[in-house]
Amino acid sequence: MTGSNDAERRLIDWRVETLRKINAFLARLFETRKENQPPAVLNLLNAMEYTVNCGGKRVRPLFALAAAGAVGDGEDRGLPGAAAVELVHSYSLIHDDLPALDDDDLRRGNPSCHKAFGEDVAILAGDALQALAFETISRPADDGPEARSRACLATGILARAAGPLCLVGGQAMDLAFEPERPGNSRPPRETPSFGDAESMAERKTGELMAASLGVGGALAGANASELDDFRKIGLLCGTAFQITDDLLNLRGDPRLMGKAAGTDEKRGKTTILSLAGAENAREKARELNREALGLAKRFDSDKLNFLIDSSVNRSF
Prior knowledge:
Layout: H1 2-33, H2 39-52, H3 59-70, H4 79-97, E1 106-107, E2 110-111, H5 113-117, H6 119-137, H7 145-161, H8 167-177, H9 194-219, H10 224-251, H11 254-257, H12 263-267, H13 272-276, H14 278-296, H15 302-312
Antiparallel strand pairs: 1-2
C-alpha cells in the first residue's frame, strides 16, 4: 500500500513541477511581447493572458509533455507544443463564451473575457491567441533540420485539430443542435442522433486532446505508429473528458467548477448525456477510459495513465 501511495505522490509532484514549467513558458511568451507596445496592444495582450491564466487545469499541455516523455526524447522538447495547445484551447473558450455562442458571463469563477475587457477586445484576443499558438509551435527548440521537420509535423497536427472538421466544426454542430435564440441567424435546428452527439464531442474535445498528445509526441520524435496510437488515445480520452464535463455541469459543485450547475439542461444543449441519460453516459465514459488505458500500455508511462484516469475521475 505504501508503494502505491509513493507512486501516486510522485505523479502528483510531477504534475506540480510540470505545471510550473508550462506556466513559466506561457508567462515568457507574453512578457516578451509586452515590451514597448502602445496601450491598445497592451490591453489586447492583457486580455489574452487573462484567459490563459484564468484557472485552467492545463490538461492538454500536460498530455503533450507526457507524450513527449513517453517516446523517450525528453519532455521539455514538447514545451512549445504544450503551450500552443493551451493557447488554442484558450482562444476557443473566449469565443465559446461570447453572446452569439454560449453566452456565458463566467469562466472558472471569473468574469468571461468579454465581460472583463469588452466583446470587441475579446474577439480580437481569441483571434490573436490562435495566431500566437502557431507562431509558438512552429519555432523548434533548436535550429537543426530534424527539429524543423518535427515542428512542421506538429504544426500540421494542431492546425487540423483547430480547424473546420474538428474543433470549429464541432462548435458548429453544437449551435445547429441548439434551440434558436434571438439575434442568431442559422438554418433550422437539426434533430441530432446519439451518433451526432458522439461526433460532436469527439470533434469539440477529443480532437484537441488527440492533437495535444500528437504534438508532444511529434516534437519528441515519435514514429508514425506511435502518433497513430496517441491520436486514438486522445480521441477516446477527450470524449470521456467531455462526458464527464457534462455530468459535472448537471450535478457538480459550482464552487469547484467556477460556474453554475445545470446550464446545459436549461439551454436545451444536446450532449451524449442528454440523449443517453446520466448512468449510460457515465458508463460510456468509463468504457472509453478503459479503452484508452489499454492502448496506452505500449508506452509503459505511469504519467500518461495517470492523466487518462484523471480525465474521468475528477470533481471539477
